[in-house]
Amino acid sequence: MRPEQPTIVVDADACPVKSEIGETAKKMSVRVLMVASHDHRLTPQEGVEIVQVDRSNQSVDLYIVNRIARGDILVTQDFGLACIAIGKGAIVLSPRGEQYTDENIDYLMERRHENAKRRRAGGRSRGPKAMSDADRDRFQQKLTKVLRGEQENHNV
């Protein structure tokens, strides 16, 4: 385990696993910081600090970038935010329990760019599939492993 406990930082605007994060963090006595815009209502949980920022489109990301530190764990679906956090030495997980790393983030950013170009040209791209109970379980298992220092470098 790390000598110092990390903080779990959550890009909470559209995070579907907030309750799972709270449960896992409580069991392992880890601090949680959930950041969301004022447009999103967050339910208070024991041991979870909630910060709400203005609704401009990058406020949550900027708040997180300015506070995340080496060894912290970020939960986000935002590849751009993930890139910055990886560069600062954070461990980054998707809400489905996939770990973003130096080895896979460039591919994910390129894929996002190609999909955006296709949409601008009138094409379609599929959105993510709905979260399942299996996805939630996989996330909780991965978060637990990371907190125990058992992380592996799994590509997305």
Automatic annotation (TrEMBL):
InterPro entries, per database record = UPF0178
- Renumbered to this chain, the Basic residues biased-composition regions fall at 114-127
Taxonomically, which superkingdom?
Answer: Bacteria
One Pfam family name is DUF188
Q: Where is this region: Disordered?
A: 114-140
Q: Where is the signal peptide?
A: none
Concerning NCBIfam families, the annotation shows: PRK00124.1
Query: Cross-referenced HAMAP family, in alphabetical order?
Result: UPF0178 (MF_00489)
UniProt family annotation: Belongs to the UPF0178 family.
Name of the protein this chain belongs to: UPF0178 protein IDH41_12980
